[in-house]
Amino acid sequence: AQTVTQSQPEMSVQEAETVTLSCTYDTSESDYYLFWYKQPPSRQMILVIRQEAYKQQNATENRFSVNFQKAAKSFSLKISDSQLGDAAMYFCAYSKNRDDKIIFGKGTRLHILP
Amino acid sequence: DTGVSQNPRHKITKRGQNVTFRCDPISEHNRLYWYRQTLGQGPEFLTYFQNEAQLEKSRLLSDRFSAERPKGSFSTLEIQRTEQGDSAMYLCASRWGREGTGELFFGEGSRLTVL
Questions:
Q1: Which of B62, B94, B105, B86 is nearest to B11 (CA)?
Q2: Residue in B with minimal Cα distance to A105
Q3: Is A50 within 8 Å of B102 when comparing Cβ atoms?
Q4: How far is B88 from chain A (nearest CA, A)?
Q5: Of the candidates B32, B17, B28, which has an alpha carbon nearest to the alpha carbon of residue B104?
Q6: Fewer CB within 10 A of the terminal residue: chain B, N end or C end?
Q7: Beta-bridge partner residues of B49
Q8: pLDDT by residue (tens digit) across B32-70?
Q9: Dihedral (CA of B104, A60, A43, B115) sign
Q10: Do B107 and A44 touch (CB under 8 A)?
Q11: Interchain proximity B102–A103, CB inside 8 Å
Q12: B102–A106: do the CB atoms touch at under 8 Å?
């Protein structure tokens, strides 16, 4: 069965600094999708960034980028120039394909220090 | 596009009562998913639909839980004979499926408190 592991329950970063959130996953599939979702306090979950496993190039979305290491089954999220609005729970997630269920990790709570 | 809508947003009930949650997905989306999230944890998959067909149910979903999606539009999640352990946020999400990017769009959730 596929699993997603986030080993950092909480992290803190100074505003304007860079922070990296870790994620590892387990799958026997060769092609799949990986995601980072953000859940601000008392607000709905939104997609931050997605990566298709067959693409070797790491995805980037403005200040957000990933380091996708397929062989190591690692998928970390880097947030550059951290802003107060980045404070949230961040969930790493996996999906076998574009319509199967998405499996989430337990999350990392990110605090931004002013 | 009004996004994924869930009702009610909050429900407080006594143990043993039945509750029903409703989810209205984004209208063009053919896939609809239900998740349960407890405090400080990630969403746990419960079940999902392609149009009106329920394609998968998690082993977490006891026989007290039932979900429907009549006519492939809105969906309901019913919990019978609620227990205190059912207290959680119930999240609904939708997406296009194979035609889309894989992104799940979430509603704001329905919070259940069982006394």
A1: B86
A2: B42
A3: yes
A4: 13
A5: B32
A6: N
A7: B32, B54
A8: 999 999 988 999 999 999 999 999 999 878 899 999 999
A9: positive
A10: yes
A11: no
A12: no
Mean of the per-residue pLDDT values of chain A:
95
Number of H helices, E strands in chain A: 0, 12
Q: A83-106: per-residue pLDDT in tens?
A: 999 999 999 999 998 888 999 999
Integer Cα distance of B44 and B2 in angstroms:
25
Chain B partners within 8 Å of A45 (Cβ): 43, 91, 93, 104, 106
In this structure, are residues A95 and B102 in contact, taking their beta carbons and an 8 Å threshold? yes
Between CA A103 and CA A91 the distance in angstroms is 10
Between B48, B100, B106, which is nearest A101 by CB?
B48
Per-residue burial over B59-73, b if 16 or more Cβ lie within 10 Å, else e, is eebeeebebebeeee
Q: Which residues pair with A69 in a beta bridge?
A: A74
Q: Which residues of B26-40 are buried (b: 16+ CB within 10 A; e: fewer)?
A: beebbbbbbbbbeee
- Amino acid at site B86: D
**Is A105 touching B (CB cutoff 8 A)?**
yes
What's the Cα-to-Cα distance from A80 to each of A15, A18, A108, B21, rounded to whole Å? 10, 4, 17, 39
